[in-house]
Specification:
Largest interface: A-C, 61 and 61 residues
CATH architecture of the largest domain in chain A: 3-Layer(aba) Sandwich
Keywords (chains A, B, C, D): Aminotransferase, Pyridoxal phosphate, Transferase
Number of domains of chain A: 2
Shape of chain A: globular
CATH superfamily of the largest domain in chain A: Type I PLP-dependent aspartate aminotransferase-like (Major domain)
Strand content of chain A: 15-25%
Oligomer: homotetramer
InterPro entries (chains A, B, C, D): Aminotrans_V_dom, PyrdxlP-dep_Trfase, PyrdxlP-dep_Trfase_major, PyrdxlP-dep_Trfase_small, SP_NH2Trfase/AEP_transaminase
Number of helices of chain A: 14
Cofactor (chains A, B, C, D): pyridoxal 5'-phosphate
CATH class of the largest domain in chain A: Alpha Beta
Order of helices and strands of chain A: EHHEHEHEHEEEHEEEHHHHEEHEEHHH
Helix content of chain A: 40-55%
Distance between the termini of chain A: 45 Å
Protein name (chains A, B, C, D): Aminotransferase class V-fold PLP-dependent enzyme
Number of strands of chain A: 14
Organism (chains A, B, C, D): Marinobacterium rhizophilum
Radius of gyration of chain A: 21 Å
Chain lengths: 401, 401, 401, 401
């Protein structure tokens, strides 16, 4: 790659742009992870993650990417052949389902069209039919990174309860946590799964499980073989601020800074900021005459927006034109959406002017690629953001509040 | 200052945004500046700066900011009471004139209205009247950072020659070098002056003099007292890659990287890029119905644009609104332009999308501050930049070529 | 922790001191791991690791610490209930054995006294008795970080071959690779396991498997459930420079730099350097009248030295005195060696003067802690290192060559 | 330079080893030096430097190296032809004297042998003879970096007072401040001069003047031409936390961190630490049978030790052997001491184990270079440092207290 002036716009839906404060926090000598100083770090990040997850239960941190935390959630709570109920919200739900099968689980998959979130009624129906409670866990993706569609986790919990079913609720909030509200305890989530490179603004390499009392109980009986992912030893060492094997120390330095930054800004402000970016982005998309993939307004993601291409146009060609001309990376369409959508990440360490630059790059890219569209998308975003700044009607803020 | 998400937009006309590559290059242990490894560094940056200055004569590097290099140019070439001819192009010309007076020079100042560059005819007239050649130097600011007006240095040289006058030509190209073309040798510049925090993309702390053979000759007789700024010892040590006193080693690490980046991109590409940003910015300003301070098209700066406020509106209030709401710093109006103009820096390590973000911040700021203007500035810039990207008529590129 | 002047001496046997070049290489914006630029990085580090492992077979890289790579080696090649033969060389062999049991393997453990390496004759005996080839794998730790004892991997391979046994050879070279010679292909290692924070000079967070053709073949039949660790998808994506899930991008930046540094220095020079440190350290230990844990000279580790305390003295108290007074971390005794030994790490990015500082800290610590010893350990090391520098008899260099 | 493993030992008497905390503090985006956030930084470092200088008078900070602050002290307080009294303590006093002459001052130079500090009696004698008070300033180097000899500044002040002479006292404490005690106000120093790369642990590029009320008064009449160095404008802008021209912003980030580190450790602890290093170093030198250049015990520098070579041996060859074999830079002998002494820097961010490494490098270097010496220098240092750690008789600490 030849040198290009200015900062690259990394507007994929994760990894998000890592702020300098975090990069610099990681750029420090690795310490002895069995020494006294480490315990302070360990306790700080473990407690901080509980705040971010909004849980009073333990959170464990793996030196692994998010896929590892999916596996950890399954192998700690389930046994070979166990039935689990999963919901096809998009590519990541599909991958998780594939993993469950590989691990020897009997994973049922409720069909979906990749434009809607989980249907709580369908979950309730399936569970009600499972009279002898063979389904051990319901697995849902809170925030589908492949589609930009959010699922209503609290409603899924209500559906489980309405069915009077004891299944555990395992939730992937990989692209949501730290950008949109997530209430582990209030929503009755048994295991919440996330990783470092989205709302936590970090490079990839860390992933997380929150563990409810019921999940912990389940882990005592769960029969899937496990060692690296085992909660028991992890929790035992975490109690004193340590880890059973070498932690990714320098990433933990970054995590400490990330948590501090989120709390400095205030989680509610973080959520409102993301809601604002998301509303502005959709206004731009509509002004261009393009279609947002997510169909139900209450399910629109605040973290990314997947945009459908006009019939006959290639999303990947547009992305290539934009990368070439304007040095911006956008997310590709995955699996059945390949070349049909592009995804705009507007998450993490991000502000209004960078969003305007991002949308400007897309509007210019549409022109440069010769794709039919209306001008005025950036203008629509400007109008909305200026209105919010002027203290006018802030739909986003209201929606969050 | 509380934490704000996303990157601050530092759109003052210098210091420009320092790219990570340069910051990281500086983030290294200081070396022994008398050891063998240092000589390699010294020779590399000295030779590199000759390329940037387009000169085969020596360039010296001071651990000092640009003001120091002004002083160096004067004290090395002049004696107490010497007459010098200076031209009032704006605040920095005015400050340099003040410095000349403080140093005991007899500094004549050709009036200007801060909206035009140097008038070569006026220079020629003054020199022609100076029949006994008492004027020892003509001092001009190539690129007035306070007004966004460029002066035609080659024309000034022609004026001096046309007058048959032996005065030295000392030129401040502080905000120009590395962003707009500057040809030290071809234009017959005797001392060119610059510093690190503009086109060189560095933090402040280094400044430079190029030294023509005639300037060097003049320094043998020049009587102003000098030690720190003395060229003689500097050149003597530079010959082997060293410095007579402690150089700002870590800033030199950054300079080495900066020179490499400019040459990787190619100077002509760098100049075309700045011309493009400048044209896009003026189109936005005009679309808003505002006025560019610079009056003559051929003198418009490619590095910054100074914008006149509508009558009765405060530029500083607008800047405060923008800083508060959109986390962007713009340049203030200086001296007689105080509160009357704001200055948009579009120099250094910068790209199209960041420019769109910058202009978006101004357009939203005008709204948020309730200042009467037309919408469509950002749109005008988008249209222009998309046209350039599409390979359409690139006025900027043509103008440079 | 209050501020302490100077650099902390991190002389545990890993994480080793991370050099600034690597920290700075990691301190860069995370890139799109599905973009074109990433593929270059991916291919570079994958090919580089083959050079370090001295293999022409593929190497895979996990975003995980070394324990994960142990698990990967087992779950990719084995099925539930499979017999494996392991050798008790110390705490890490013991932990790996425990992991094998947790994963449902029938793991036999050849006893050891923690002061010797693997006994190839014993391995051969066990394999010869396994006439129907139920043992699927022999697992040995090349370099026991808990004891400072090296095992002769080539001899183990010869033993397997001599027994005419088809078992795979899985080797943990976690603390050896990159510091002492390791010849994956020449020694017939089927899976070699390592991680980032030892000879590779990185922070923890990456781990590795090399995969022989036979190991790959075994993975087609192996029945242990796996997803995150699965070689198949990994190799499929690696072929084009990508990863099946988010890689730890910033750690890969560091890895690229680490590989470059090892190759710049030259692997043979790296090995000779470690041999020199190790010899100097043992001379110091003997001069103090203390005992090196490793009993057989040809098995002495070049990476760390475990030192037995005099009867009745606490190793942990000595370590605490040294940390408190001289800001140096030493490795603790593990498991049955708890409080009985301390371990001196002399691996990774390290030089003669830092070794002298390290040994000086121990000699002063022995005094400060009131532990009976002879003076002169540092002097013995100085004498040896000066002799080597003077080109005198370099036992270490000879031993390596 | 080819890559060498481990950290370079930069044991010249400045630049000292810059700690990571400071490098990382500098590795941040440059801010608008006219914006509100800057004023906080400016006020913090200006107030912090008053604490370090132990003065209630203003301190000014130049973007310049130490030589610039020498010039600033002279041009702000003196007029062309003024008589000043200077004392030949070594190379830096000699250079400062040369500067005074270049600037047109009538600079008297009291002879010295480069092995003693300033003789207060000689100063008093000269001043007493100057009955009409033509001598306007006495200039002394508190801490001669070329010789490792300290002068008694308080005694010089007493000598001036005893002579009843109104001359200003200008003191270069470039290599002393921040490492050894310096009491600007208590000792009646009118202008104290220092720079960033010694006790302040920074890279070069910043220098300082403290300004007494009398010095400020003198500056109103002083006639030497000045602009860049002018205190008046500097103080005017500093009052609000700003600077009259671009400050070296990123170096100021580092300075803020440096001040914080010194105050965290506690100045008295910093001074005691340096005294300890210095005593240990001299014990090593004597054990080798070599001679410390400084002749008077009370004048021994705590920051560096200059060591005389045995007759007929080249110091520069020894330094080259040590650099080549042990990757350590030592200071060269300057001017009349060229090749006769080497200088060991033991200042700044430094600890006991790095000192042992440093002394080890010298002892091994003496061997490798075949220079006749006794062994046991490192041992002597170890014995002393262990004794101090054990709470034994700490001569150094007593001397400081």
């Amino acid at each position: 790659m030849t040198y290009r002036s200015g900062r690259h716009f990394l507007q994929i839906p994760g990894p998000s742009n890592v702020p300098d404060r975090i990069l610099r926090a990681m750029d420090k000598p690795t310490m002895d992870h069995r020494g006294p100083e480490f315990a302070e770090l360990g306790k700080t990040v473990l407690a901080g993650m509980q705040q971010i997850f909004k849980t009073e239960n333990p959170v464990v941190i793996y030196p692994a990417s998010g896929t590892g935390a999916w596996e950890a959630a399954l192998v700690n709570t389930l046994s070979a052949g166990d039935r689990v109920l999963m919901c096809e919200t998009g590519q990541f739900a599909t991958l998780w389902h594939g993993m469950a099968q590989k691990l020897g689980l009997d994973a049922e998959f409720i069909d979906g069209d990749w434009r809607h979130g989980v249907d709580p009624a369908a979950v309730q129906r399936h569970l009600s039919e499972d009279r002898d409670h063979q389904i051990k866990a319901v697995c849902v993706v809170h925030h589908e990174t492949s589609t930009g569609v959010t699922s209503d986790v609290a409603a899924v919990r209500r559906a489980i309860d309405a069915a009077g079913h004891p299944a555990l609720l395992l939730v992937d909030t990989i692209s949501g946590l730290g950008s949109v509200d997530f209430r582990t305890d209030e929503w009755g989530v048994d295991v919440a799964i996330t990783c470092s490179q989205k709302g936590l603004m970090m490079p990839p390499g860390l992933s997380f499980n929150s563990i409810s009392a019921r999940a912990l109980q389940a882990s005592k009986q769960a029969g899937l073989p496990r060692s690296y992912w085992g909660w028991d030893e992890m929790l035992q060492h975490n109690a004193r601020g340590y880890f059973p094997y070498s932690p990714a120390t320098n990433l933990l330095y970054g995590l400490k800074e990330a948590i501090a930054m989120l709390l400095e800004e205030g989680l509610d402000n973080v959520f409102a900021r993301h809601a604002r970016f998301s509303e502005a982005t959709r206004r731009a998309v509509r002004a261009w005459g393009l279609e947002v993939l997510s169909l139900v307004p209450s399910e629109h993601s605040n973290v990314l927006t997947a945009v459908l291409m006009p019939e006959g146009e290639s999303a990947d060609r547009l992305r290539a034109v934009i990368l070439e001309n304007f040095d911006m990376s956008l997310g590709t369409g995955l699996n059945k959406l390949q070349d049909r959508v592009f995804r705009i990440g507007h998450l993490g360490d991000f502000n209004d002017l960078s969003l305007i630059g991002t949308l400007g790059g897309i509007e210019m890219g549409l022109s440069a690629a010769g794709i039919s569209h209306n001008k005025g998308g950036v203008q629509a975003a400007l109008d909305y953001l200026a209105e919010v700044a002027a203290g006018g009607q802030d739909c986003a803020r209201q929606r969050v509040a």
